[in-house]
């Protein structure tokens, strides 16, 4: 029985259906808007092509962001309501993983970036590390909204460490963040930065999320659909201001 | 078998069996997450409402992004509760109905997405519902009402006079050209330093004040117009408060509230009377959050008696946004066999006329 993975955190609307180690189908479109009316017909048609129905699904994997708020809510809400209605397991995985995994087997430092405007990006860092007897592709800096001028020194530290250890001193930047800040990146990192030319490597792939999610579900992880929400990684501006006001009001009272 | 074919078969089976219909309604167009189960368009088996009002009160109004986030948190438990309270399972449902406009688009999309996911997962027909039609149909939940009728829809987002010749048919006679009545209440309350939402506070205060202490304008617009305008009134109140403050005078808040409410109610009531005369209907149904306003209830009833028409107000619990009214409004479409595809979207502004015409997936020949 197959699993379904869904991600709508970026402009790439992407879904995949498969089992452990076996991708049965994947569909992606790059569109600026209307993920809402496209997602469900896409799921329906991919399943129909595979001669499957909703009730054949064994579990759901949702890209839980970070990313566009409205966008990520569509994928997350779809995923959790399908899982809830069918009473099947649900797991959330980082949408950044769906981008970073393009370079899973490379010996580069990997930095997927979703543009968050005003010189900020939702990003994380990954690299291959020795784990137990073998090697594994590991997230070494968590998903966060970062100001680029404070993030770049962190990337440089990792590059410096790689240089000292005799590993390849290069970082690959991926995603619309890498495209938006291409010049800044090239100015700062020069030859140490790689920005892929190939269109195929620029988009989040649900197939990668599917692999990660199936591994989680089959090792016993499952999120409760009732409380499942996106990882926005940022407060709403009005909430942030309110917290600030409350904070200063309390400070003043002391 | 594709989803459409499964849904078609289910619909035929259910109609042939002749069992009562059970429609799950979902409503997330503003700051209330609601789900309900309604039998045959009239009998409310459950109507669960998770209000976010306390959250938005801190901001002095609805913050759309905050509302959308709360909807995602609330939607699953609220739907679950609605099913539990109605003592039905997803398998028992005849259709899923959801508000798809008008409203805050981010908020709408949570409900629309959730409804589509349920419809898809369980192969249940899907019906997108116009929010205003929902408010009008809140009146049918009390029973005993039949079209033709005239609806006065007044809320924080709407002020409309709608003629409804038959089920599922709507014709706008008038609408607001600027602020909605409820919005004017909120803004005036804010400028008077009163809490959000403004309607209930001003309604209460107005009862203690003298509406003759000051006179605010009434926007009648052109001769015979059934449209509304409340922004001039709102500005007049704010200016009056401001000028008094500059002169160091203190206006009695109860008098300001009374004069403001008198001006709003005058216009609402007289335009309704005009619409009744033009359409010749005998039933007027009031809907929307402002339908809970006591001043409006009393004065419109009194005026209706003079004019010889009857006025119906939904129970207070069904005046504000709720999903039972959405399920009720979907019922005539269910009967006709008109449904939506899985590409249903949410729309910040959605004309009633567009809704009543489709495009629908017609499962009934
Ligand atoms: Zn409403």
Structure report:
The complex is a heterodimer of chains A (254) and B (365). Chain A is an alpha/beta fold and 254 residues long. In chain A, the strands form 2 sheets. A 5-stranded mixed beta sheet of chain A has the order 3-2-1-4-5, sandwiched between helices. Chain A has a 5-stranded mixed beta sheet with strand order 8-7-6-9-10. Helix content of chain A is 39%, strand content 28%. Chain A folds into 2 domains: 3-95 and 205-239, ATPase, nucleotide binding domain (Nucleotidyltransferase, domain 5), CATH 3.30.420; 100-202, Nucleotidyltransferase, domain 5 (2-Layer Sandwich), CATH 3.30.420. Chain B folds into 2 domains: 3-137 and 322-362, ATPase, nucleotide binding domain (Nucleotidyltransferase, domain 5, 2-Layer Sandwich); 148-317, Nucleotidyltransferase, domain 5. With 365 residues, chain B is α/β, with parallel strands linked by helices. In chain B, the strands form 3 sheets. In chain B, strands 3-2-1-4-5 form a 5-stranded mixed beta sheet, sandwiched between helices. A 5-stranded mixed beta sheet of chain B has the order 8-7-6-9-10, with helices on both faces. The mean pLDDT of chain B is 93. Chain B is globular, with a radius of gyration of 21 Å. Chain B has 13 helices and 12 strands. At the A-B interface, helix 1, helix 2 and helix 8 of A face helix 3 and helix 4 of B. The structure holds zinc ion (ZN).
């Amino acid at each position: 029985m197959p699993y379904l993975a869904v991600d709508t955190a970026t402009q790439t609307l992407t879904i995949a259906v498969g089992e452990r180690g076996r991708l049965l189908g994947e569909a992606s479109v790059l569109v600026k808007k209307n993920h809402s009316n496209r997602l469900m017909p896409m799921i329906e048609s991919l399943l129909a092509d595979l001669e499957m129905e909703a009730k054949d699904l064994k579990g759901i994997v949702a890209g839980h962001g970070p990313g566009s708020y409205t966008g990520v809510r569509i994928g997350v809400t779809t995923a959790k309501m399908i899982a809830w209605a069918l009473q099947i397991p649900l797991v959330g995985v980082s949408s950044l993983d769906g981008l970073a995994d393009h370079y899973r087997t490379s010996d580069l430092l990997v930095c997927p970036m979703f543009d968050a405007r005003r010189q900020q990006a939702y990003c994380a860092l990954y690299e291959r590390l020795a784990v137990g007897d073998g090697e594994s592709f590991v997230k070494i800096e968590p998903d966060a909204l970062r100001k680029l001028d404070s993030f770049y020194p962190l990337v440089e530290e990792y590059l410096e460490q790689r240089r000292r250890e005799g590993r390849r001193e290069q970082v690959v930047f991926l995603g619309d963040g890498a495209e938006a800040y291409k010049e800044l990146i090239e100015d700062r990192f020069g030859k140490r930065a790689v920005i892929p030319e190939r269109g195929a490597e620029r988009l989040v792939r649900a197939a990668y999320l599917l692999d990660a999610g199936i591994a989680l579900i089959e090792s016993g992880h499952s999120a409760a659909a009732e409380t499942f929400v996106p990882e926005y990684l940022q407060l709403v501006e009005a909430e942030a201001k309110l917290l600030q006001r409350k904070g200063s009001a309390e400070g003043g009272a002391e | 078998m594709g989803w459409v074919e499964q849904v078609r078969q289910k619909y035929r089976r259910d109609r042939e069996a002749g069992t009562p219909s059970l429609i799950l309604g979902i409503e997330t167009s503003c700051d209330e997450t609601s789900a309900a189960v309604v039998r045959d368009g009239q009998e409310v088996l459950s109507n669960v409402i998770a209000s976010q009002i306390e959250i938005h009160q801190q901001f002095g109004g609805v913050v759309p992004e905050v509302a959308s986030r709360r909807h995602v948190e609330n939607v699953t438990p609220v739907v679950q509760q609605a099913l539990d309270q109605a003592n039905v399972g997803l398998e028992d449902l005849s259709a899923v109905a959801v508000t798809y406009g008008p409203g805050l688009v981010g908020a709408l999309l949570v409900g629309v997405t959730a409804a589509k996911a349920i419809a898809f997962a369980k192969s249940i027909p899907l019906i997108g519902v116009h929010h205003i039609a929902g408010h009008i149909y809140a009146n049918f939940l009390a029973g005993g009402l039949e079209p033709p009728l005239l609806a006065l829809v007044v809320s924080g987002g709407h002020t409309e006079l709608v003629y409804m010749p038959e089920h599922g048919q709507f014709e706008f006679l008038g609408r607001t050209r600027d602020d909605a009545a409820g919005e004017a209440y909120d803004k005036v309350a804010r400028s008077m330093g009163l809490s959000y939402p403004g309607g209930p506070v001003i309604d209460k205060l107005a009862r203690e004040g003298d509406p003759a202490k000051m006179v605010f304008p009434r926007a009648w617009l052109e001769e015979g117009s059934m449209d509304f305008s409340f922004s001039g009134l709102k500005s007049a109140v704010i200016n009056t408060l401001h000028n008094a403050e500059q002169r160091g005078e203190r206006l009695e808040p109860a008098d300001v509230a009374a004069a403001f409410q008198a001006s709003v109610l005058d216009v609402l009531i007289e335009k309704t009377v005009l619409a009744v005369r033009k359409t010749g209907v005998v039933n007027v149904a009031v809907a929307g959050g402002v339908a809970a306003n006591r001043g409006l209830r009393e004065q419109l009833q009194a005026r209706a008696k003079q004019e010889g028409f009857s006025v119906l107000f939904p129970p207070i619990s069904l005046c504000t946004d709720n999903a039972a009214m959405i399920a009720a409004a979907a019922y005539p479409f269910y009967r006709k066999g008109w449904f939506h595809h899985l590409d249903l979207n949410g729309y910040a502004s959605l004309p009633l006329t567009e809704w009543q015409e489709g495009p629908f997936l017609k499962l009934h020949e």
